[in-house]
Design a protein that fits this description.
Layout lengths: L8 H4 L7 H12 L3 H13 L3 E2 L10 H13 L3 E6 L2 E6 L1 H18 L10
Helix pairs in contact: 2-5
Length: 121
Amino acid sequence: MFATYEIDTMTYSKVINFDLQSQEISQLAKVLSHPARIAILKFLAKSKTCISGDICNEIPLSRTTVSQHLQELKKAGLIHGEIEGIKINYCLCQSNIKKCYMLFNELFDELDVEINCEDNC
């Protein structure tokens, strides 16, 4: 299960009016909305192993910024980060990646309807 973010009830009070699946998809979309996070996920997937050490050699951002993005991905449950000595090993959380894939797939399957608008949209 993905981590749930605390929702500011003053700003997002209407969120609770939507089904849980829609809420979960929107939270994931928010987490995935930054290209650095996409780059981190792609890098971890390409590596096919847990990465110990400096991911910021692969991402063109400062160490602090990369660390913040890693924390958001970890909080969302898309990656694991385990401390080993003085380094942290990062790897994809395969079960949550698969769930994310299924959620977005179901959404786009629902949206895949034939429309008679001559693709002007």
